[in-house]
Amino acid sequence: MLFHYHFWTPHVEETERFYVDHGFQVFQRIGKYQGDFQNFNPPLVWDDFREKNILFRIIEARKGTINITFGYGKKIIFDHIGFLISEKEQDLICENAAEMNWSVDRGERRTFINTPYSFRIELQTNKDIVDSMTDNIKIEELRIETKKKGLEDDLSALFGKTVNTIKSVTGDKVTIREAVITDFSSKQVVDPNGVRFVN
């Protein structure tokens, strides 16, 4: 199940505000302050720390089966998408990735696959990463702009089945163009990183 994406962005506070305004709850904020990584989690709000020079490594916002993360970057960079899967599925996907010569970085909490499309794929087996597995609020589809063709076919080979939640268009950058999310908004809106939402 597609559940996640991550951006690096200079618009950290604005990105958080956008998602909170659309019903997401901030789960955690981790940032570097005075040389150390520290938590600035809720119930803290931006007025509590805005004046401090914090470099946010990760801010995590959740809604239903969706988990969106972002951290500070000098420019907007789309980093990865994430799939929530079983451990058995993970083993098969990692084997397929090796056959495709895509490098795999297996970690204790999550696994990353490096794609030739200039973004990574996270494989997550821990269901505690989302608020609800039964909630109907989910990412129906992401439309990803890539610089080369073939993403859908490669994802089918990687997962061993058709991945209907990812559609691609070829362009001059790598980013998420559109996100189709259930029960998101009655009108089209665009987040601070250029992701357009359609209901």
From TrEMBL:
InterPro entries: Glyas_Bleomycin-R_OHBP_Dase (IPR029068). It comes from the Bacteria. This is VOC domain-containing protein. It comes from Sporosarcina globispora.
